[in-house]
Amino acid sequence: DTGMRKALTLLMLLALCGGGFAAVSVKSLEIDVELDQNGGAAFTENYTLNFTSTFELNDFKEKAKKNGTSLSFWEADFNFFYPHFETQSNSHENTNIAFDERTGYPTLKYTLAQPFARLLRDEQRAAFFTIDYRQFADFIDGSTIVIPENTTIKIILPASAQVDAGSVLPPKSELNYNELTLHGIQTNSLKIF
């Protein structure tokens, strides 16, 4: 009986201290990648989260206020919250974190130190970029690019740019003039021009 009370007390303390007992999870992640004329990109990552209880939501809101705009604090508290397109050779810059108090959903905005896309040629009516598959390093599993079902990546090209017909796009991708949407795909061949 005493052992059972101690175990219940320990479980309650773990839950109250936010010791990772019940974790916030990502319901969906929408990433907008807005390319500029030089191949640079502005990234906006919008997180929709699942909370298992009101307590968990309130705990998240409290941590969000405490973390403020410090990316390192957010990353320490929530392992899912980080710049998904940052690589060892291309670090993030100009980070901005917004938190919607009403919904409890955070948004991460950033740019990269190096261009995201490489300009192949710039013609009078169109600019042609290439995006190397290695830019999707965070989504590579073995030799396959895996964008989960709960994740949508929208690549928005400059107004004068277009996706070339020679691009190798996966079956679930959508192309709408200068916007390419990738959602729930697995492919070992992604070549975007």
List the helices and strands and how they pair.
Blueprint: H1 2-16, E1 25-35, E2 41-50, H2 54-67, H3 71-77, E3 92-100, E4 105-112, E5 118-122, E6 127-130, E7 140-141, E8 144-156, E9 174-176, E10 179-187
Parallel strand pairs: 1-8
Antiparallel strand pairs: 1-2, 2-4, 3-4, 5-6, 7-8, 8-10, 9-10
Structure description:
There is one protein chain. With 193 residues, the protein is an alpha+beta fold. It is built from 3 helices and 10 strands. Strands 1, 2, 3, 4, 7, 8, 9 and 10 form an 8-stranded mixed sheet that branches. A hairpin with a 2-residue loop joins strand 7 and strand 8. The longest helix has 15 residues, at 2-16. The radius of gyration is 20 Å and the shape is globular. The termini are far apart.
Features:
two-stranded antiparallel sheet; 193 residues; eight-stranded mixed sheet; alpha+beta; disordered N terminus; 3 helices; 10 strands
N- to C-terminal separation?
68 Å
The count of strands amounts to 10
Rg (CA only)? 20 Å
The helix/strand class is alpha+beta
Number of H/I helices: 3
Helix content class: 10-25%
Query: What shape does the CA trace take?
Result: globular
Average pLDDT metric: 83
Characterize the main sheet.
8 strands, mixed
Binned strand content: 35-45%
Quick summary of this structure?
With 193 residues, the chain is α+β, with helices and mostly antiparallel strands. 19% of the residues lie in helices and 38% in strands.
